[in-house]
Amino acid sequence: MKIKSPTLLVDRKKCEQNIEAMAKKATSNNCIFRPHFKTHNSVAIAELYRNAGVSKITVSSVKMANYFASHGWNDITIAFPLNILEMDEINRLASKIKLGLLIETIEAAEFICKHLKEPVQVYLKIDTGYHRTGIWHEKNDLINTIIKFFPQCSKINFSGFITHAGHSYQASSKHEIEQIHTDTKNKLLKLKERYLCRFPNLIISVGDTPTCSIVDDFSGIDEIRPGNFVYYDAMQLQLGTCEQSQIAATVACPVVALHRDREELIIHGGAVHLSKEALSTSGSGINYGWVLKQTPHGWSEINKELYVKKISQEHGIVNVPAHLMHEFKVGDLIY
Fold first, then answer.
1. Residue 219 lies in a domain
2. 199: exposed, middle or buried (Cβ count in 10 Å: 0-12, 13-18, 19+)
3. Could you tell me if 106 and 71 lie in one domain?
4. Do residues 95 and 141 both lie within one domain?
């Protein structure tokens, strides 16, 4: 294949190894493994999971759930707060597959009780510290009020409490990641214990790549939902949750200009191809990704002097020290 424009490259073997390792961790902890498919959103990558014995998945939208349902996935949790405007689509989907939904407001609970036509699994979305969304774990009155709706609707199977400890991405050490995991687990266990007599099949579900990668003991956790781990990335490498040898994806970008006086090269590869998420590294400041070169044995080792320091929609500006500028020319591909 001749690459002419920004192109995602995936190492299939590394993906398979990453999937196998996480699946083994879930099995050894007697956890349900429900990986998040948002990271790859690909039927081809999904087949690698299926080959590893995965049958339950997580997605982030009704549209994504429909996409994977149309390719034979029939046990799907939509890990995004219920959008009541999509109730017709949700009912259609729930008539075909085992569907899990997230609730975090009284309004959504009341609405779904009135308009649900097919059986679904319902989870309460809990905030354990990330503060993106979800009910704060100590808001007992609100949690009680919402849960009281569920027995009123025969189509609802209240299945448990679910969270995303996304603040693990801001951790400064493995120890801090482990602390976030323990804190998250303890908060969810308190909720589970409070309602277990009334709902004996409740589970607690967690899902972030840093804790799922670093922690080995998931006792007390019923389900894990990591997603990024299938590829890993520079942010995970910086966090210490993976090795460079586990990173399974990169973007090939053409070099379109060199500016030796500024020690920069320009690539066709910007925010639409890479990400607006950036690393903050000592010495280099904002970093949108380290630059690799292709070798006969795969991608080169990271040279931290080479990194994408600025992006716009289509442009990437790469920092290249003067003593390395001779290694690049217009028309090259970097990764």
1. yes
2. middle
3. yes
4. yes
Is residue 287 located within the same domain as residue 172? no
Give the CATH number of the domain where residue 272 resides.
2.40.37.20
The whole-model pTM stands at: 0.95
**Neighbour count for residue 167 (Cβ, 10 Å):** 19
Alpha-carbon separation of residue 10 from 73, 275, 288, 293, 306 (angstroms): 22, 17, 19, 15, 21
Q: What is the mean pLDDT of residues 261-290?
A: 88
Q: Is 160 a member of any domain?
A: yes
Whether 219 and 283 map to the same domain: the answer is no
Range(s) of the domain holding residue 150: 12-231
- For the segment 180-223, what is each residue's pLDDT rounded down to a tens digit? 999 999 999 999 999 999 999 999 999 999 999 999 999 999 99
